Amino acid sequence: MSGNHKETAEHNIEVLTKNLKLKKIGTTVLFHRPGLLVFSPGVTKNTKGHYWFDIREVNIERKNTYYSEANCFLLLRIVPDKFIMCRFDEIEKILTSPDKERTGKNVWKFHIIDGFSKIIKRNIDDFIHVQLVDKQKIVDYAELIFSSGKK
């Protein structure tokens, strides 16, 4: 994330906590309620004009250890007021070898490309199709999907 990390990390967090009634897990990008886990990083344009986010190994481990039976989604909060949501298993299909951070920890980096219609794993050709939506549409859509219990 470029710019003010704290500001981006907190951007539109009320959609998750108030509208969707999810609880944040510590200082992570993870939010939950019974039977549901949501990875929700804030995303803004970097200095080169790209939109990107990452998924950290520690969060995937937490998902696999504590939330293996939960419905799991990725919900990107894009500055200023747009969203992308998909099932997490779609992202898992393009999780290949991780990019190492300077700290030596595993992280997977993704770019959002083609007018916000694709999420692509950095440095490879695998991607998933996604749709950019506004705040009201994501609240309506997410609540419908979350309450239906679909995986």
Describe the structure.
The protein is an alpha+beta fold. It has a single domain, classed as 3-Layer(aba) Sandwich (Trna Endonuclease, Chain: A, domain 1). The protein is built from 5 helices and 12 strands. A hairpin with a 5-residue loop joins strand 8 and strand 9. The model has no long low-confidence stretch (mean pLDDT 87).
What are the defining features of this structure?
single chain, 151 residues, alpha+beta, Trna Endonuclease, Chain: A, domain 1, 7-stranded mixed beta sheet, 5-stranded antiparallel beta sheet, 5 helices, 12 strands, globular
Number of domains: 1
Q: Give the distance, in angstroms, between the N- and C-terminal Cα atoms.
A: 29 Å
The amount of helix comes to 25-40%
Arithmetic mean of pLDDT: 87
In short:
The protein is α+β, with helices and mostly antiparallel strands. It has helices spanning 5-10, 13-19, 57-66, 88-92, 135-148; strands at 23-24, 30-33, 36-39, 42-43, 51-56, 71-78, 82-87, 99-100, 106-113, 118-121, 127-129, 133-134. The protein has a single domain (5-148), classed as Trna Endonuclease, Chain: A, domain 1 (3-Layer(aba) Sandwich).
